[in-house]
Structure formats: C-alpha cells, structure tokens
Design brief:
about 450 residues, alpha/beta, about 20% strand, binds zinc ion
Length: about 450
C-alpha cells in the first residue's frame, strides 16, 4: 500500500528544476519516498494520506551538505584550538581526538545531524578519518538510520604519522592494509547504489599530508572496482601547498591527477588555493569541490575562487565542515556565507542569493554524483524543507522571499520531509528525543575535555 503526502499553499516553491521555476501558491504531491507531481495548489490533488499546509512558507529542495566531521561537535571552541591556522589547529586537536570512543561517534553524529536537519539539510556526507579505541564508521551509519537522514558515510583514514613525515601523531594513524580491508567491508555491508538510496559509502583517505601516495592510489582502485565515490581534503591553505611542493614536487591538483583522484566520482574539500591549471583540470574531468566558507574564514585559509570554478564548469557544492572549525554548523547559514564571502573576494556581483542556494541544492547533488536529489521535480527523492517567514528577522523582506531566505538571519526549518517522511513538524524533530541526545552529548564532550587536560 503506497502512502501519499501533499504539501500545499506554499508562499513560493523553489523547484531548482531545469527551468529554475519558482511557483507562487505551490504544491507538491509525494507518493511514498518519491515526488510525483509539482504545480500550483489548484493544479494538484486536494487530498492525501497526510497534508502539510505550507502557507507563509518558502519551500525549497532539501539542502545537501558535502563536507563535515560530525565527531568534532564534541570539541567545539576548545581553547587551544580557537585561534590557529589549519596545521596548528590540527596539531592541538589530535591528542584530544585520540580519546574518542564508538559511543562518542554515535552520539555526536546524532547531534550534528539534528543541527543540520533543523537548518535545512536533508542529505549529508560525513568524513570520519580517526579511529582510536572502539570507533567504527558503523556507529555513524546507525545514527543516520535512527534520525532519518540521507547519508554518504565517508571512510576516512590517516596512515602517515609524525615519524614518517606526516602531521598527525603516530598514535592516531592506522595500518594501510587494515584501512583498505575495513573500507571494503563497509562498502559490502552498507553501500546502496540504487536510485533514491538513503545510504552510500565513500572512500576517503584524510589528506595528502596524512596518508601515503600508495594509499591514495589503492583507494582509487578500490572505489572504482565497487563504483563508489572518492573524497579527501585538497589545497586548503598555503602550508598545504608548501607541503605538496616539498614532498611531491607537485601542486595539489597535479598530485590528485597523478594518484587517479580526478573524475565525476571524486570531490575534494576546500580547494581554497586551487590554481588556474587545477580549476581547468577539475572542469575538464568533472571533479567536484566542497566549498566551506565559514571554516575557511575561521582558520584564515583564504577565499576559494568559487565564481571562477563555477564559470569554468567545476561542480561546486557547500559544506559546513567539522564543528571544530565551524562551530555553528548551520546549512542555510553556510549558503549566506558563501554568497557574502565571494563578494568580499571578487566584488558585489560575484554571487547572487539564488546562485548560492543552487550550490547548496543542485551543486551538492552533482558533487555527490547524484541526479535524484537537489530539485523538486517528478521522479526526484522527496527531500523538501519549509521555512516560515513570519519572524522579526524577515520583516520587510517579503517582496522577495527567496532572496530573503539567504540575505536575512539564517532561519531553522519549520517542516522537513526526508525520503517522503516528515522528520521535522512545527520546528520539532520527530525521530529522536533531542534534549536527551544533547544531555548525553554534553556529558561525553566534558569527558573528552577532562581526559585531554
Ligand atoms: Zn574537513
């Protein structure tokens, strides 16, 4: 028996379809987990098993987060890591993260996902690259299943410790054969290649400065033999570029190409310092970029040339990045910052509100190599978020509610539908008891801070 859901009376429905239609008094008819019809409220069926009245709401495709480290929600604003650049920041945090446990991974993933969902995100990737004690990626996957979020779980890894010239301490790196074996196990256990899949696995060694060239190459072979995507950090700041020059005598883009890390099945986080040759290479090969404006500002990494990338044809999505380098992981807030930061770097016409919103929807979908999310159109997954524009923060901006969503103070969703299921109703997350999760999360965060001290 199929179940139907009708969203009607939307003040404006932002489809992100091929014509980029914005439909006044819009409606969406959903059957099970898939969008069946899109139009005005009058055009669509008037009844369904469940009906959401979206009067006064802007309705948009669920936002897609292409880069995160959810475990870092436990280590926000750690004093020793409040003011450093990337390498210094990492060096101060590795010893704290060395005490992570499987329970901490599970609870922090629930917390991070709750924050993302409430801020408009329906699909997220997560890059878990540190596995001390009993940590496993399975703990994140279980959390996504519980909360009901569409999830690309990235099996990160670090294998080159300080004694071998890498950045992380030896105590937090893994053996390369064990990394590949566990990655293969995860793909075979969890990866769902089907359309509208809720769960995919990604092969994701952490960064050129924490894994070997061999592991980068082996990871690419493993991913391609299973048809899964590849993800890592690249060209994040000037020290990252210097490391690449010194160790490999290559730019980060040249190194990525040399390791087989370009193509539509690959996306790199940051790319703040990607040069023109790199932009050209990424455009030619369809290699994606996860742009993380807040994190880039917090760590003073620079301003990624997103306007240039998009104009060249590079697929670009947005990412909040881990909560230790973006302590406010608000997905709609990231859209706003992406728009503002391009303007700081490249002038007032470098990015419009609608272009920024497109990066967070269609852009993110493309970066994750998906054509079934990121727009509201028949046949797409039913991932739809609704923002109510009745607060003081939107007063005076309702003549252009779509632009208001991006320009004004970032709002939380009032309703969110993920895979056809109403996950947030009237601002309340229905799938987990959030106060209980947060109490547990804060207790674990205190434990972690105490152990480090
Ligand atoms: Zn990152």
């Amino acid at each position: 028996m199929s179940k139907t859901l009708l969203i009607k009376n939307a003040r404006v429905l932002v489809t992100m379809d091929a014509q980029r239609r914005e439909i006044a008094d819009g409606a969406v008819f959903i059957r099970d987990n898939v969008i069946e019809r899109v139009g005005t409220t009058d055009d669509l069926p008037q009844a369904a098993d469940e009906v959401i009245d979206a009067a006064g709401h802007v309705v948009v495709p669920g936002l897609v987060n292409t880069h995160h480290h959810m475990y870092q929600s436990l280590t926000r604003v750690i004093p020793a890591a409040q003011d450093g650049e990337l390498f210094n920041w990492l060096t101060n945090l590795y010893p704290v993260w060395a005490n992570l446990t499987g329970e901490m991974v599970h609870v922090s993933t629930l917390t991070a996902m709750a924050e993302l969902i409430l801020s408009g995100c329906t699909t997220s990737s997560d890059h878990l690259y540190i596995y001390p004690n009993d940590c496993r990626l399975d703990d994140s996957i279980e959390a996504a299943h519980t909360i009901g979020m569409r999830f690309h779980a990235s099996r990160g890894a670090m294998s080159v410790g300080r004694s071998k010239g890498g950045l992380p301490p030896d105590s937090v790196v893994e053996d390369e054969a064990a990394i590949l074996k566990d990655t293969q196990r995860l793909i075979e256990t969890y990866h769902d290649a089907s359309r509208h899949a809720m769960q995919r696995i990604v092969v994701a060694p952490c960064s050129p400065f924490s894994v070997s060239r061999d592991l980068m190459k082996e990871a690419a072979l493993l991913a391609r033999s299973h048809g899964v995507s590849l993800h890592t950090h690249l060209a994040e700041n000037v020290n990252d570029i210097a490391y690449s020059r010194e160790k490999f005598d290559m730019t980060p883009a040249e190194y990525a190409e040399d390791c087989g890390w370009v193509g539509q099945d690959v996306w790199h986080a940051h790319c703040v310092q990607l040069d023109d040759a790199g932009i050209h290479l990424f455009a030619q090969t369809g290699t994606g970029v996860a742009h993380c404006p807040c994190s880039n500002m917090r760590l003073a990494s620079g301003i990624a040339p997103v306007r240039k990338m998009v104009d060249a044809g590079v697929p670009v999505g947005l990412g909040v990045d881990g909560s230790a380098s973006n302590d406010g992981a608000h997905m709609l807030g990231e859209v706003r910052q992406a728009m503002l930061l391009q303007r700081v770097g490249f002038g007032p016409d470098a990015m419009t509100a609608r272009q920024a919103l497109e990066l967070a929807t269609l852009g993110g979908a493309k970066v994750l190599n998906r054509d079934d999310i990121g727009s509201i159109a028949p046949g797409m997954a039913a991932d739809i978020v609704m923002f109510k524009l009745d607060g003081a923060g939107f007063a005076g901006a309702l003549h252009d509610p779509v632009a208001a969503l991006v320009f004004c103070t970032p709002a939380n969703v009032n309703h969110s539908v993920i895979n056809g299921k109403v996950v947030v109703k009237d601002g309340v997350l229905r799938t987990v008891d959030l106060p209980v999760v947060l109490e547990r999360h804060n207790r674990l965060a205190r434990e972690l801070a105490l152990k480090a001290a």
